[in-house]
Amino acid sequence: MADYDLSKLRALLIDDHQPMRLILRAMLEAFGFSDIHEANNGQEGLEMCLKLSPDIAFVDWIMDPMDGLTFTRIVRQGRRGLNPFMPIVLVTGRTDRTHVIEARDAGVTEIVAKPLSTDHLYRRVVALIEQPRNFVRTMRYFGPDRRRRREEPYDGPRRREGDGSR
Length: 166
Description:
Helix content is 35%, strand content 18%. With 166 residues, it is α/β, with parallel strands linked by helices. α2 packs parallel to α3.
């Protein structure tokens, strides 16, 4: 894993639990982030996005009056000057398959499970740099490609050859 200079990136932490923001801030500072801002909920996060234009957002799921998935859906719409391509990392304890699919379909870029691991969080940040996701637009969705792809050369038989699908 390469080391990156993350000091020029502006991060936004959105979590209604102040101790969690302190933990996240300490981890990001250890990674080299120096421009870190905080919001207590998704609504404050939207206001800060308009004011600060962060490069990346770390968002909790459950918050009032606006939760992390609502925040993500609004950002992905790109209205009011919001950057719809901003990487959004959901930091959550809701990691069962149903919740992961719901978060993915809302447009989060990466998911980091609580309790936090410094190594796992760093790997997610590096993945945003080394393996950025393409964005897709359909009638019902705009956001990072929801499929994980590994571009490896295919050297097997031709797919669908001889099955009449062409």
